């Protein structure tokens, strides 16, 4: 396909260039010949008028045509022009043919050329405004008005134009070949990369040739390849993580059931409760995965409207405050006196707060504190908005784990998360819900000092 495209581009460039050269050559040739012929006509016209002035001056001086023959004979030979003079009655006064025939015997090679008659011109001879005769001039040695020297000069010009056009055509051929290869080479590279990508090689990338359309295409391909490679890695990681999360409860269930079957353990309420706990764990995992799938694919309904989040913060905080008190944790809710609205979804906002407060409650020890604050300020200062902060003085997150906490199934301490019932999905859901409402979320934490999640939303107009 690339070869056909390069051939088409080559032929298109070459045809366009040759057509331009042909039209330019014809136009230049026509203009030069036209101007050259116009110049010759003007020159002959001026020469004819000088001859007419000589004839007019002779009659004005003598009052008749007596003695005009020698003068016209000399002029005829000098100008290589046949002259015929007629008086006012139309009678022939002088014809230079007789004199020219006698002279031609001594002209050698010029004789044959001068025997060829060209264009004729006729002028009235006026003396003091009165016509006293007519002068006819016939050019010799010419085709029409052009002499052989003029024809040779015109042929030289035409040959020069042809040679220039030929050389320009050769240059256009090489330039078209270069341009066609230059344009199709990035396409060929992208085509090869696409073929390899189709075969499963997701590491394929192409070099962007510049900032033009081909460069944009190359960047788009690289972006697509990066996304496909990332999604493939996430898919594999997701499959591994899900199988890992399912393995523990399924192994537990299998062990209990085999123990019941073999009579090792009795199916008493305590053991049944352990089985029920593992089933609930599986149910929660499936529920979280379904919720994550919905928010990542943006397939859940997200009706946004101008909303003051203060009521949602109070509602969710009031649900968790008794649990904080029960665990010996100090809780605080800070709401500003002025209220700012943002385009939010109330249900999604409450799910965000539930996840963040649930995590804070799990990892904050007795004597610690949890703080929920709303402020009508965008800390980045880019645009008016509001900020929601959920912070605690819990265990904190290490600097190495902090950049990964929003990834699916990521847990800084897997064993501790299992004890607390977490799957490493909650913060991923929080991030997706925040971004679905055109917001941003950041986490700040120090190990052993606590964690703060800061959410910003643009204000509603």
What strand line-up does the widest sheet have?
A: 8-10-11-13-12
Note the gap between the termini.
53 Å
Question: SSE string, helix = H, strand = E?
Answer: HHEEHHEEEEHHHEHEEHEEHHEE
As for the CATH topology of the largest domain, it is Beta-Lactamase
Mean pLDDT: 79
Shape: rod-shaped
Description of the molecule:
It is a single chain. This protein starts with a helix and ends with a strand. Helix content is 58%, strand content 17%. Strands 8-10-11-13-12 form a five-stranded mixed sheet, with helices on one face. It has a four-stranded antiparallel sheet with strand order 2-1-4-3. A two-stranded antiparallel sheet has the order 5-6. It folds into three domains: 2-165, 2-Layer Sandwich (Beta-Lactamase), CATH 3.30.450; 213-296, Signal transduction histidine kinase, dimerisation/phosphotransfer (DHp) domain (Helix Hairpins), CATH 1.10.287; 305-458, Histidine kinase-like ATPase, C-terminal domain (Heat Shock Protein 90, 2-Layer Sandwich), CATH 3.30.565.10. β1 (81-87) and β2 (92-95) form a beta hairpin. The chain is built from eleven helices and 13 strands. α5 runs parallel beside α6 (213-262), α8 (310-326) packs parallel to α9 (346-363) and α9 runs antiparallel to α11. It is an alpha+beta fold and 461 residues long. The longest helix is centred in the N-terminal third of the chain and has 61 residues, at 2-62. Mean pLDDT is 79; it is low at 414-421.
